[in-house]
Amino acid sequence: MSTQRPLPTGVDLLHDPAYNKGTAFTEAERDALKLRGLLPPRVFSMKEQQFRILENFREKTSSLEKYIYMAALQDRNETLFYRVVLDNVAEMMPIIYTPTVGEACQKFGHIFRRGRGLYVTAHDRGRVKQVLEHWQTRDVDVIVVTDGERILGLGDQGAQGMGIPIGKLALYTALAGVHPQRCLPIMLDVGTNNAQLLSDPLYTGILEQRLRGDAYADLVEELVQAVQAVFPHALLQFEDFATENAIHLLETYQPRACTFNDDIQGTAGVTLAGLIAATRLTGRPLPQERLLFYGAGSAATGIANLIVAAMVKQGVTPDEGRARIWFVDSKGLVVKARTDLAEHKLPYAHEHAAVKDLAEVVDALQPTGIIGVSGQPQTFTERILRRMAEFNQRPMIFSLSNPTAKSECTAEQAYKYTEGRAIFASGSPFPPVDLDGRTYVPGQGNNAYIFPGLGLGVIVARATRVTDEMFYVAANTLAHMVTEEYLAQGTIFPPLNSIREVSAQIATAVAQEAYDSGLAQAPRPKDLAKQVRAAMYQPTYEMYA
Known about the structure:
Elements (H helix, E strand, L loop, with lengths): L9 H5 L12 H6 L13 H14 L3 H14 L1 H10 L1 H8 L3 H7 L1 H4 L6 E4 L6 H5 L9 E5 L16 H14 L6 E7 L5 H4 L14 H18 L4 E4 L4 H11 L5 E3 H21 L8 E4 L3 H16 L4 H5 L2 E5 L2 E2 L24 H8 L3 E4 L9 H10 L4 E4 L11 H7 L5 E4 L6 E3 L2 E3 L2 E2 L6 H11 L6 H12 L4 H5 L10 H18 L11 H7 L11
Parallel strand pairs: 1-3, 2-3, 2-4, 4-5, 6-7, 6-9, 9-10, 10-11, 11-14
Antiparallel strand pairs: 7-8, 12-13
Helix pairs in contact: 4-5, 4-7, 5-6, 5-10, 10-20, 14-15, 14-21, 17-18, 20-23, 21-23, 23-24
């Protein structure tokens, strides 16, 4: 184990998820660790334990019940939890993360069983460092923090947004092998403006309206400084902050802390990877695409900025790249004549007449691809999808909003209304679609393809910063792992069952970038790929006696 805590014995051992093996403790271990009589007498293998877990898991009648069941397993036997997830990743990911984690956050206070991670509240001003010092170890590699204001497409979930950092870190471990004892979820509880939560007797957070302005900024500043003092090597990931805060915090801390925002940069990375792979089907280089974003928040601008950076690498100017990208927000097409635009939208405000209706915008611009990051379900209508197929032999339809209920269209709709010609990607998973004797396998543009491997690369190199170039490198690596076989069935991402290999290759590329850019603190190994793989946690039982 990489944790420095001493091995407990007896009942304490059975209650410690980091060390507990349950019925897999051997006869010798039961004698040496004072477990004799505390367990049923038969010794089970991990494989036999997995069989029991999966049998019970598959008997659950709802996704939320499955989520609760897996959370309970994580709380009592971490190694077995990650073994089950890793060996059944396509089945488990929609349960332990999107889309089920959204419902889990909404009902977090009602399904709460056991605390995990740290809660820093608005009442902790002046003592945040002390709160962080209560954590069990100083050896932390990754921290995911949220203030719960923009949970997926569900909005303000307050302190119940803690399900997001917990789920994200589970993916760091399962998909990239970051040791679970070196992961720390943090909930920054600054209140909530969700009236339903404030009136819920089982709500888990402070019963106050959200902290704003200088007081909010000062609390975040204190948190970042405390993280750097208590966990000096930790990567700090900001997650599910509202657009204005997300953009401001990234601009503030990216230059002086090892940090990134997954909603802005991780989403950008996986979307760019999908577009790069899709160009092999469209036959056009990326700078020739005309892309229309439905939604103009932090995710949309983050994606657009990375796409422009990729276009620049292919020989166009930044202005020429931005001219290929258009936004539609809640008030219509983003154009220069509008006086109500937030600063992050201005680079993508072009000369054009005002158009409010999305279908009319599609008619006017005739984009080669539409990218949904709006959180508004069923907005890519039959009319829009059919028109996209009229303009394009292979229209790109990226319906990225999470959870599934917020998706701009389904995979079936995208394929049906484009006569099977759509290049489709979604944020949440959709099943394969049978149409006219052919099976289409939709790709899931899940950030999990990017952030775990990127984080592992940062950890291996001990990078002092996370740069935009690292996300480009990660996206390019991911895109080139898509084989012709997968493209032929409409899939523009590798299969989920290969995601550990994906993470290893991304980590190697990101670590290489950290060394090449002078941001790495760890000594440069002779074989970087070997070093990355050696750093990956494997969920197997250790022998204690």
